[in-house]
């Protein structure tokens, strides 16, 4: 009974913490759809390998939300035809590169200025690495099928053929400018956003339930037991970041409770990996990426964060 009560308490905490940010993300995505129908400005974002993810990461300053709120916005960017690099850069870097997360990090660790600089820099490196890695896959192997179809409908015909849009029309396609999209009614946008929120909330509930069960069966004290070992401490705090699934807007205050017991590299690894990969995100990522791409994201993020944590330990220990 005690374990069930713990699972229920953790589940409620995770869900209540994440739901407001998910709602903010859905509202921003709906507002963007209403203000800029067709997403023409998205298609003008940079497409160069380095500049595109940097631009996407910079968009994070316009969305003060955690990783849960970023998923519906990133999906809207991709559906609107934004370059892959920009959307992926936003998806992976924005949960850290936003004013609330930077302010909470500073408030939790005012005596460690290196962390205030290292956290966003490390998040940017992870986003660049993941963007480069995932763009090696063709879009059909990267994006969730419904999103891919919606994305192709928003792209000009000189970039995506009619056959690829499943329109059923056959013939050569001459380049032509896309027709201007009409602004949807406010009622239509609200209806679409409500359905999107309910769909994502269901996935979030599932992710929070999994995280609550695993977190109960794998107590934090086990992971903190190796806090002084340079490599093991980084690995254990990476696992802890995945398991506890706390939002990036408050994770610095959680880390403050055990920061004195672990190495600097482990502390940074906890603050950088959690906003990209955690158990409650498993379902939400499914509305953007295919399973293989999600697995690549998790593996790539873990490798990059481990290297960053090791380097920080070599530098500061």
What value does the Rg take, in angstroms?
Answer: 20 Å
Number of E strands: 0
Helix content: 55-70%
N-to-C order of helices and strands: HHHHHHHHHHHHHHH
Largest sheet: none
Percentage of residues in DSSP E strands: under 5%
- Overall mean pLDDT stands at 81
Shape by Cα distribution: globular
Structural class: mainly alpha
Low-confidence stretches: 167-175
Number of helices: 15
* Terminus-to-terminus distance: 43 Å
Task: Please supply descriptive tags for the structure shown above.
317 residues, 15 helices, mainly alpha, globular, 66% helix
Structural notes for this entry:
The protein has 317 residues and is mostly helical. Helix content is 66%, strand content 0%. It is built from 15 helices and no strands. Helix 1 packs antiparallel against helix 9, helix 2 crosses helix 4 and helix 11 runs parallel beside helix 13. The chain is globular, with a radius of gyration of 20 Å. About 3% of the residues have low confidence.
């Amino acid at each position: 009974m005690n374990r069930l009560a713990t699972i229920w308490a953790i589940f409620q905490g995770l869900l209540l913490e994440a739901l407001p940010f998910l709602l903010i993300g859905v509202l921003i995505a709906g507002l963007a759809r209403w203000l800029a129908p067709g997403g023409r400005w998205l298609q003008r974002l940079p497409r160069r390998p380095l500049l595109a993810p940097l631009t996407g990461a910079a968009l994070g300053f316009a969305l003060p939300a955690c990783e849960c709120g970023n998923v519906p916005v990133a999906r809207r960017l991709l559906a609107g035809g934004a370059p892959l690099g920009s959307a992926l850069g936003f998806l992976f870097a924005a949960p850290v590169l936003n004013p609330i997360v930077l302010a909470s990090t500073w408030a939790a660790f005012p005596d460690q200025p290196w962390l205030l600089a290292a956290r966003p820099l490390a998040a940017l490196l992870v986003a660049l690495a993941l963007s480069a890695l995932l763009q090696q896959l063709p879009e059909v192997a990267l994006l969730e099928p419904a999103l891919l179809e919606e994305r192709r409908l928003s792209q000009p015909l000189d970039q995506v053929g009619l056959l690829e849009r499943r329109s059923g029309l056959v013939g050569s396609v001459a380049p032509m400018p896309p027709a201007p999209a009409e602004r949807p009614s406010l009622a239509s946008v609200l209806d679409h956003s409500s359905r999107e929120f309910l769909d994502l909330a269901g996935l979030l509930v599932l992710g929070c339930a999994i995280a609550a069960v695993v977190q109960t069966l794998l107590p934090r004290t086990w992971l903190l037991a190796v806090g002084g070992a340079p490599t093991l401490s980084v690995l254990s705090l990476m696992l802890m970041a995945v398991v506890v699934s706390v939002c990036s807007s408050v994770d610095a205050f959680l880390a403050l409770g055990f920061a004195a017991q672990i190495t600097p590299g482990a502390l940074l690894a906890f603050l950088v990996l959690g906003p990209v990969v955690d158990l409650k995100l498993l379902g939400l990522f499914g509305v953007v990426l295919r399973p293989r791409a999600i697995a690549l994201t998790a593996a790539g993020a873990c490798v990059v964060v481990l290297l960053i944590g090791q380097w920080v330990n070599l530098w500061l220990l």
